[in-house]
Structures are given as C-alpha cells and as structure tokens.
Prior knowledge:
By secondary structure, the protein is α+β, with helices and mostly antiparallel strands. Helices cover 21% and strands 26% of the residues. The protein has two domains: 74 residues, Roll (Sulfate adenylyltransferase), CATH 3.10.400.20; 91 residues, Sulfate adenylyltransferase.
Amino acid sequence: MFKKDITPGAKSKVKSSAQRAIRAKVLEQYPLLEPYIDDILPKKDQLDLVKLPDRVSLYTLGSTPLFFQHMDDPLLPHLALVHKYPDCFHRLRIDRGAIRFVLSGATLMAPGLTSPGGRLPNDPEDEEGRYGKEELAPGEVVVIEAEGKENACMVGVLKMGTEEMKKAKKGQACEAGHYLGDGLWGLSLG
Length: 190
C-alpha cells in the first residue's frame, strides 16, 4: 500500500465526538490496549487526521502517527505504536527467508509462517505463549515479527485463517498494510 514515498495531504483536527468514536473503535478492535488507552489517545489532547494518497486516513497526536485506515477498512496500528506496545496485538512470526520479501512490500505467503522458523498460534515450539492460543480468522489485523529480530516488521490483514495455513502450507497468508521502510514509515509529520 505504501511502497513509494508519500507526501502528506491536508491535515485537519478531529471533532471530539469523532475522537470518542475512534477511541471506542480502537478498544473494540484491540482490547489489550485498554490499560494504555489514556497514554495513546488522551481525552484532552487533539487528534489530527492527515489525508494520504489512495484514500488513506492517518490519525496522529502531534507528530506521532497512531493508526491508519483505508476507506472503511479496519484501523491498523502504525509500527511506531506497535513497537511501543508489542504485547497488545495478535502476533505471528516469519522465518528468516521471508524477511526480505516482507520488507520489499510483497504479500506474505503461508510458507514464511509455517516453516520451522515461523510461528502461528498454538505452536508447540512457542513455550512462552507469545503467539497466542486462539486461531485467527481471515480479516484479522496481525503484527508480523521476524525470526531473530526484536521489533515487529509489518502490520497486515490476514487473507487466510491460521488453521487453514497450517493445513495448506501454501497460498497468500497476509496482505501488507504497512512495513518497516515503506512510505508510511518514512513519512515526515514534523
């Protein structure tokens, strides 16, 4: 979605009623963010809406990007927010071989998640329970981590459920919404 550098369009202030609606939507989509919601979206601070190309809306607090949304799609967290609160989102892990494809904006394929270095929910090798116990359905927003790396490298939307991935072991698994080094990552809001 953001393969090329992008220039921010018009910036406008979000009405307080719309701000409350966004806050409620964030809590509905990401219930694990509830303890931090006052840090992320303080009630008294002004939320801004920055228009981006291809009908994408970016919600920011000052010069801090928080969430973005393509038309009426789900709100996706910006990677800066994911890096600050990594345990608040559904996570999956790709193997080392898939990293370069993800960082070039390719759609994530199932083998990157089902191979020995990848991790899906209920993985017997996931002793810490980092990747969760419940299977994820298509359309869920997920954060993609990379084998051997500390921070998440991509936020996307599942095209295939995790249970189906384990069985099929091929096909398109996750559509890239935003990844490290893309136009949204490099966007200057200062």
